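Anyone up for a design puzzle?
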């Protein structure tokens, strides 16, 4: 079925609290898996046949028929990855380096020309993506945090890759307000078929972090703020004329969707023209969402999350005018990285979503039906914090682990 893209695409306490806060931090790799214990629950028994979200808990079926192969090690806190037309890979390291992998071998020398980044706590050099017409223009795009502990923000930049050097680094977008602290920068990049880009921006941080005298997380509902949003940009950072709020006097024209806490997984389904995202909840309440232009995803007005310190963030789990999530993970898996598998190499997994988990230390394979409803999930154990998962141009699936000695791992089914 054809979709109108511009409207759809373009349309106990202290221990638990400290554990959750640390486990979601980019600077720790010691968290143990929560949701990967063996279960006798049938794979599709935890299903959501209606518009109600699948409430995913601890008893998630563990996959057996798969193989994980370590391709390389030696990456420091890797964050994002992308491919060049010649098959080489670019991988970002959160401290501020871009690495290149050729024929499965990591070049010992980082690519030159990266701007200075604010690499504190969750901040640093984050996502990387090549322009859809890279073969002609050689443009590579990055998200990163910039500034100081007292005033920082997420930026989007592009540069021209010339051999092993990035040239003409240009900031094409930055979040409208600076914030303090090192939390909730987002961020991921994905491209739409019209060569516009979507960029996910976090809400700025947990309480007690404030902005203009109120909790900063409330900015997710402020349409004049970029915090807690997905923004849509042209490839030069300008605003597409058909963005959902472009004619509104009470909204920033870059805003595509809002009410998000901290998206660190976003992927476009080219088969069905759908946009999917995963975002971190607070204490539980992580979400998988089907994201549409102009829609409100609720944070912090409607949420399954609890405060890290205990108690409700909101008493509402659903509300008219708010889009319900497709999956809610409690306890948190801390989702980071998301891929829709559309290739033909791994036939048993075609049409599935794959969500990385930092706390759960696994990849969640999510089954979708023809109506984009979640009908089941299973855990593919990785044993390390999963920061990113991507489909390569040749139809493989690759995982990055968030460690001081991070790994690039390929996964594949062993049956089907």
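Challenge accepted. My sequence:
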């Amino acid at each position: 079925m054809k979709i109108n893209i511009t409207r759809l695409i373009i349309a106990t306490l202290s221990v638990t609290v400290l554990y959750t806060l640390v486990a979601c931090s980019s600077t720790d790799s010691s968290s143990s898996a929560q949701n990967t214990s063996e279960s006798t629950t049938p794979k599709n028994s935890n299903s959501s046949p209606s518009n109600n979200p699948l409430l995913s808990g601890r008893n998630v079926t563990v996959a057996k028929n798969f193989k994980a192969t370590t391709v390389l090690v030696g990456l420091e806190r890797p964050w994002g990855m992308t491919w060049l037309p010649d098959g080489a890979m670019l991988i970002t390291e959160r401290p501020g380096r871009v690495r290149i992998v050729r024929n499965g071998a990591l070049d010992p020398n980082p690519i030159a020309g990266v701007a200075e980044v604010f690499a504190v706590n969750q901040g640093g050099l984050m996502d990387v993506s090549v322009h859809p017409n890279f073969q002609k223009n050689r443009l590579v795009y990055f998200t990163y945090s910039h500034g100081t502990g007292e005033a920082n923000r997420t930026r989007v930049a592009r540069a021209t890759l010339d051999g092993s050097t990035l040239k003409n680094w240009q900031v094409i977008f930055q979040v409208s307000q600076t914030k303090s602290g090192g939390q909730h920068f987002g961020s991921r990049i994905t491209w739409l078929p019209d060569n516009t880009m979507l960029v996910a921006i976090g809400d700025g941080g947990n309480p007690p972090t404030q902005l203009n005298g109120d909790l900063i997380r409330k900015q997710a509902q402020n349409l004049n703020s970029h915090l807690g949003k997905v923004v849509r940009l042209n490839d030069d950072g300008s605003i597409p004329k058909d963005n959902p709020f472009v004619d509104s006097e009470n909204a920033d024209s870059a805003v595509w969707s809002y009410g998000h806490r901290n998206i660190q997984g976003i992927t476009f389904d080219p088969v069905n023209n759908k946009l999917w995202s995963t975002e971190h909840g607070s204490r539980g309440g992580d979400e998988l969402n089907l994201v549409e232009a102009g829609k409100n995803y609720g944070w912090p007005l409607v949420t399954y999350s609890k405060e890290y310190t205990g108690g409700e963030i909101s008493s509402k789990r659903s509300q008219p005018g708010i889009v319900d999530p497709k999956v809610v993970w409690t306890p948190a898996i801390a989702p980071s990285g998301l891929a829709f598998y559309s290739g033909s190499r791994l036939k048993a997994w075609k049409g599935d979503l794959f969500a990385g988990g930092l706390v759960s230390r696994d990849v969640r394979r999510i089954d979708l039906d023809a109506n984009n409803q979640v009908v089941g999930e299973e855990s593919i154990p990785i044993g390390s914090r999963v920061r990113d998962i991507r489909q390569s141009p040749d139809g493989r699936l690759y995982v990055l682990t968030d460690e001081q000695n991070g790994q690039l791992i390929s996964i594949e089914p062993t049956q089907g």
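A detail worth pointing out: The longest strand covers residues 152-162.
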